[in-house]
Specification:
With 204 residues, this protein is an all-alpha fold. Helices cover 81% and strands 0% of the residues. It has one domain. It is globular.
Length: 204
């Protein structure tokens, strides 16, 4: 390797290390707050119109997966635009690092959901608690790239996931508010943390 190639590889290495040690600021608190409202709205709709919005069984899973897709799309599109604005030339590296962090948990959640729905649909009640525990793990894993206080909503999701597993296991069924309350409050907490972190960045 020539001196030029060695210098370029060193520069690229430094860029990756810098991106890995920089807090990702792509997530907008307003968009995350919108996902909290979406969770409350869906849980309310399933409670008032259970047949239309899938309050049980396959309909329950389909409704919440659709909500997750919508929420992820909203947050993702905003994150890409916001990241380019705030991180400049580091935006692609920052986004790639974030995706590498999120993808394994998303893939595990999808596999678990598909296996349970296809093989043991009578145990669909276990999914809300498992989903919440996976979200908690995402938050704990992201503590180095997001505000450190992200551990508090992560702890909330972990607690909720445990409680929901116990309650749903005893009843043998998952209810809309086993998703609405954990995600409504949890995402609102994340939004508040991101908002205060943004104000702190502005002061500095």
């Amino acid at each position: 390797m020539g001196d030029l190639e060695h210098a370029l590889s060193q520069v690229e290495f430094i860029r990756h290390r810098f991106a890995a040690s920089t807090r990702f600021r792509g997530f907008a608190p307003q968009t995350v707050a919108l996902t909290a409202i979406l969770a409350i709205a869906l849980a309310s709709a399933q409670t008032v119109w259970p047949a239309a919005f899938g309050a049980q069984g396959f309909g329950f899973v389909e409704a919440w997966i659709l909500a997750a897709v919508v929420a992820t799309s909203l947050v993702g599109v905003e994150a890409m635009a916001r990241s380019r604005r705030l991180h400049g030339g580091m935006a692609d590296l920052m986004m790639a690092g974030t995706l590498r962090l999120l993808f394994p948990f998303g893939a595990v959640g999808l596999v678990i959901t598909l296996v349970i729905v296809k093989t043991t649909p009578e145990t669909i009640w276990i999914l809300p608690g498992l989903w919440q525990l996976l979200v908690a793990l995402i938050g704990f894993s992201a503590a180095n790239t997001l505000p450190r206080t992200i551990i508090w909503p992560s702890a909330w999701f972990f607690l909720c996931g445990t409680v929901v597993l116990l309650l749903a296991g005893r009843a043998g069924v998952a209810t809309p508010w086993m998703m609405g309350i954990p995600f409504g409050i949890g995402q609102a907490l994340v939004a508040v943390i991101l908002y205060h972190a943004g104000k702190s960045d502005a002061r500095h």
